[in-house]
Amino acid sequence: MGLGLNASNHLMKQFARSSLMQGCREKLVAGRRTWQTIVATVFAPLLGNEKRSDRTMTTIDFTRWFLALYFTSVASFYTVRIIVLARRYGESPVFSGQPGTLHYATHLAFRVFRIVILGVCVARIPWPQLDRYLIPFDQLWEPAILMTGNVLLATSFAMAVAIHMYMGKNWRSGTRNDDRTELMTRGPFALSQNPMLLCVLVAQSGFFLTLPSGFTLVCWVVGIWAVTTQAKIETGLLRRRFGAAYDEYAEKTPRWLLFR
Description:
CATH topology of the largest domain: Four Helix Bundle (Hemerythrin (Met), subunit A)
Radius of gyration: 31 Å
Largest sheet: none
CATH class of the largest domain: Mainly Alpha
Number of strands: 0
C-alpha cells in the first residue's frame, strides 16, 4: 500500500507539474501572439505592409522602377547636354543669376529639389518602406492614376528632348543680358512663349500622380512657384534684349498654350 501511495503521489505531482508547464507554455504563446498583433497593427503602416490588390501592387512596382529610371535619364540627359554645349561654344548654357536675387532663388530651388527627388526615387528601389515616410495619399494609389502620371512624365520628357533638338545652341537654363542667342518665334515657340517650362509643369503634375503623397505635393507647389517665377524673369530679360520684336511676339503668342 505504501508503495502504491508513493507511486500515485509521484504521478499526481508529475501531472500537476506537466499541467502547470503546459499552462505556462500556452500563456507564453498567447502573449507572444498578442505582441505580434500589436506590433503588426502599430508598425504595419511604417513598414508598408498594407494589403493591396495584386494589380495595384504590380502597378506600384512598375512605377517605382519607372521613376528611378526616369529621373536618372533626365539627370544624365541634362548633364551631357550642358557639357557638350559648354565645350562646343566655350561657355556654360546654365546661368543661375546673382546670389540674393529671385532668379538665383528659383534656380537654387530647382537644383535642390532635383537632387532630393532623384535620391528619393532611387532609394525607393532597395527600400520600398520609404513610401510610408513620404506621407502617401492612399486613396489616390490606384492603377489608373499612377499610370496617368507615368504617361505625363514620359510625354513631357519626350517633348523636352524634341524642343532641345529644335533650339540647338540657343538653349539656356536661365537668361543673361549678354546671351548670344536668337529670339525664337517658330515651331514650338509659336504655340507657347515658354514651351520648355511648360514641359516642366506637365512633369511636375505627372510626378505627383505617380507618387501621390505629401512629399510630391510639396514638390509640385514649389515647382509651380519656381516655373512661373522663372517665366516672368525671362520675359523681362527678353523684353529688354529684343524690345519691340519681343512685344510683337508676346502679343500674339500665349504663354502656356491656351493661357496667357
